[in-house]
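Q&A log
Question type: sequence-to-structure
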Amino acid sequence: LDLRQVQVVALSTGTKCIKGEYISNQGLVVNDCHAEITARRALVRYLYSQLELFLSKRREDWEESIFVRHKESGYRLRDNVHFHMYISTSPCGDARLNSPYEVTTDLHSSRHLLKKFHSHLRTKIESGEGTLPVRSSRGAVQTWDGVLQGEQLITMSCTDKITRWNVLGLQGALLSHFVEPVYLHSLTVGSLRHPGHFNRVMSQRLECLGPLPAAYRRNQPLLSGLSVSGECRQPGKSLCVSVNWTCGDGQLEVVNTATGRKRDSGTPSRLCKHALFTRWARLYRKLSIHASGPVDQPLMYCEAKMAAGSYQTAKQQWFRSLLETGLGTWMKKPPEQESFLLQD
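Response status: OK
Response body:
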């Protein structure tokens, strides 16, 4: 890797998720404000800006874009473009369980629990820190009224989401309409990691994955870590804020992790579903690459995501392999939060 050619395109901080009472049925909040997750959402904003650059009428703009035209109506990354992710501490979930940071004098009594849930899917604790094994008895879909009446909002761990990116890509369902899957080339973790365990977590979940649609693959990024001397647990709880930045932004955005909105104004974050869907709809109308219906007909957010056929096929294959290998059921948010239209 030639560091002279490296560019930072997305940054984020954060360690918490929203409280269930703040969930939005208009896509106006960021549910998961853990740094890894908001960094990916910040990267998605960068991918949108690069697609928009490619579609510019100015030759110098589209020559600068990281995308090139692929086949008839799609786009892919240029051959020399790779994405590298750095995480300051081991991601929450299974990758964190066996890190030196978590080893205690009570290790022997808890070893049987660690073994029982080895590689198992884990969920974050609402508005808190740490993870718990998936409880399949609750079912795979949370209900809207249950969450609003006080049930904890369940969010999958960062370990689980990163391994999912290694199958489906970083771009998400919406961008899959336009671009081939975008995978991580490398992943570097700072402190609180167990290299052997982390590597096993990243690779083991892909072993029983069946055949995937064209362009999708079992991506195994290069894994590395930084040697950090004098590791120690930071005293006190983390702040309830998440900061994000994408290349091209004039300033940082600070999000209240309890509400999923901008801390100062309470307005929606530029990372929320509604904001990203707005950019997608603009590209969709411009490209008109799907002839299944009138281009100006409003699409519901969930419909637009489901219409990405290959992506959805790969996702179901991924969910099925997790179940068949006994690693647990992927917990989904209430479907009402994705049943919104863009306001004119």
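Response note: Residues 119 and 277 are 33 Å apart (CA to CA).
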